[in-house]
Structures are given as structure tokens and as C-alpha cells.
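Consider the following assembly input.
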Amino acid sequence: MTDFSPLAVLRFLALFAVQVFIFNQIHWFGSVSPMVLVLFLYWTPIDRDILITMIGAFALGLITDVASDTTAFHAIALTVGAYLRPAILRLSYGSSVSFHTDSQFSGTLGQNLLYLFYLLLIHHLLFFTVEIFELSSAFVILTKTAIHLPFSFLIVALIAILFSSQKR
Amino acid sequence: MGKLLALLIKWRSEVLLVFLLATALALTVTQSSHQKAIWLSSSNALLGRLHAFKTSSTEYFSLKKRNQELQNDNAALRAALYQAQFEKALLDGSMRLSDSLTPYAVIPAKVVKNSVLRERNYLTLNKGTSQGVYPDMAVISDQGVVGIVEQSADNFSTVISLLHEESSINAAIKGTNYFGSLVWNGQRFDRCQLYDIPKTAEIQIGDSIVTGGMSSIFAPGILIGQVSQFAIGQNSSFYTIEVSLSNNMANLSQVYVIDNRLKEERLTLESQSND
């Protein structure tokens, strides 16, 4: 359960760099920057221990936050995403996914995209909730999520499909 | 004890979740009250260098435009210089102002990181305490006001942008003595809001908004933007003014940090008067 393969470390660093130095610099329509960190959860093998996944997600979120002055927004969003990952997996691939102990497990394209979408939805909702930090502004949180989500999904799905040889 | 341990193991993922979330939330809360530790922001040395490297490797693509901006900047400075020399010669040809009498010092700096999409936006500059940049100094560009230095490391500083929900700057309508507070509502990065201008003031769309003299940080009269909309609320005696910023906050490169050398003297005097 503790295989920190060079590939996993490379992905971790690459996601950090790509988010901070490329996607944070993009401002589509003046206000939209895609957020791609959930690919970390997407690429983590499904049999990876949840504690390891949570700590990894927290660490990736925190270093990205430090570099983008977003305090701990990514860290919170990714940690909760990692905690909910088993449930999201069951929701996307059906309950039989829990019987797979195979790291090379891969669903159909539709299932994969659904899985990605759920991960992104949770990440974006939490990210903007923590950023705005006022539940009275729920409408602003939902609007921001609704505006950012399609762009992030487009980018994340493209990256996931392009690098699909790296099975989760 | 054994039971407790068993319980902890059974709920280990929940325990870890609570622990990690508590850590992250603690960071968030302390951060927003400006108590943040210096290593937890982009002004720390390692990340500062990384951002500086990234900026230096991509700035070649906009060199031509930057050159043009610098030339314009130079031209304006020369014009001001000639004007000042002319006026000085006119008044008294022999008088020389000593350096210590000049109230404002200017330190040029480069923006190595900038954000406009958050509710609380910060910039990182490539100058720090080694170059004389300290917290609470004003940051402007040739187009207008940018923000206020929040913290300084040796060679980098972070700046609270105008586009920060807690930023509040004393601003006035150019040519009048009406002043109010300029704040940002977190929506458009090219607009700020000016409050507390009394409705007796006559304003028009397109009027220039400049820094007011009530601030100990900014020199009075630095351009902020133009009035793009204004309204008076019911039962209110003050305007709510929408200000279109003269700076393109999303595209800042060369900025100037302004050190008001008389600030300490003024603050000391003011606090003595309040006692």
C-alpha cells in the first residue's frame, strides 16, 4: 500500500507545477482559471490506502496554496475529496468496484468521465465555500462553481484522456 | 486504553480528516487576520525565486509592449522634470532641496506573481527589506495605484492588491476636497467602489479619482481611475461610486514602491494628539 513509485512522485510535482505556473496564469473571459489538482485523486490507484491518499492530497493542496496565496483552500478541498473517494468510486463505477484489488482497474470512458466530474464538483464547491467563507453567500459560491466547473472539466478530461495509458 | 486505541484505529480515516481539516482551517483563519507566518506565502525565498524564474522566462514575449510602456513612462517623467526645473529656476535659481527634505523615495520593482481572481488578491514583488521595501509602503505603476506592501522578506515582498476585500484606500475626486474610501466588492477586477462621498459633491461620469491626502501611505493625487457609474441610495446622504481602474490589474509588470519618509513623524504626531 505504500508504493511511492517514481511515477507517483513525478505526477505530484507535475500537477503542482502545471497548476501554479500554467493554469493560475490563465484568465479566460477575465475570471476563469481551470483547476486541475483533482487529477491526483483520479490517478491514484483505487486500492491505495485512504490514509496515504488523504495525506498526499493534503500535501499537494497545501504547497499549491502556498504558491498561489490561496491559504489552504486547495488543501481542504482535496483532503475531503480523498476522504470521499471510495464513495465517489462506488457512485461512478457501481458498488462492485470495492471488490477490485487490482491497481490496473479501469472503467469505460463514460464511467471515468463521471468519476472525474464528481471529484471536480466536490473540489470546486469546497474550494469556493472556503474562499468566500460565508454561507450567506451561497448563491455566489454556486455561481462561481457553475462558471469554473465546465472549463476545469474540459481541461481535466483532456489531460486524463491524453495520459490514459497511465491507468489508475 | 485498549478500547480507545481500537476506536481510533476503526475511525482512523475520520480522525485524520478532522486533524487535517482543523490544520487547514486554522491556517485559513489566522491568514485572514493578517497574522500569517512568512513562510506561508509566496514571498518566501524559495517560492519567490521560482516565481521570479518563471516570470523572467516568459517576459520576453511581451518585451516590445513593455518597452513602449517604459518609453511613455520616461517621457512623462522627463516632462515633469523639465516642468519642475523650470518652476524652480523661476522661483529661486540658487536653492537646492537636500535629499532628506524630499518626502517620498521611489524604489522600482518587478511583479513576479499576481492574482486577480480571488476574493483576496496579492502580488509578489522582487524587492524586499534588502532594497528598502518594508510593510505599509505604497505600490503604484505608471498607470496608477496598485496596492500596499503587506510583508517583506529579504528579497521579496507581498502586496495587498486594490483587489482585496479588506483593502480600503482614502480616495478623492480630482480637483475637489471631497474624499471617501475606495474598496473592492470582489466582482470585476477592473472596477472598485468609492463610498462616503457626500451628495453635495458634483460628480460626472469620467471624473478622475485620485488618492486623497488623508492617507499616510499614499502621496495625494496619484491616479486611481475614472467614475464609471454613480448613485445615491434612498435615505442616504452619500454617493456610491463605481470606479473604473486606470491600471490593468491583470497585466502588471513594472511597479514603483513609494516610501513616505515623513510617515513616522506624521503618525507619531497624530497619536500624540489623540492621547
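Residues 138-162 of chain A form the longest helix (25 residues). Ask yourself how this observation constrains the way the partners meet.
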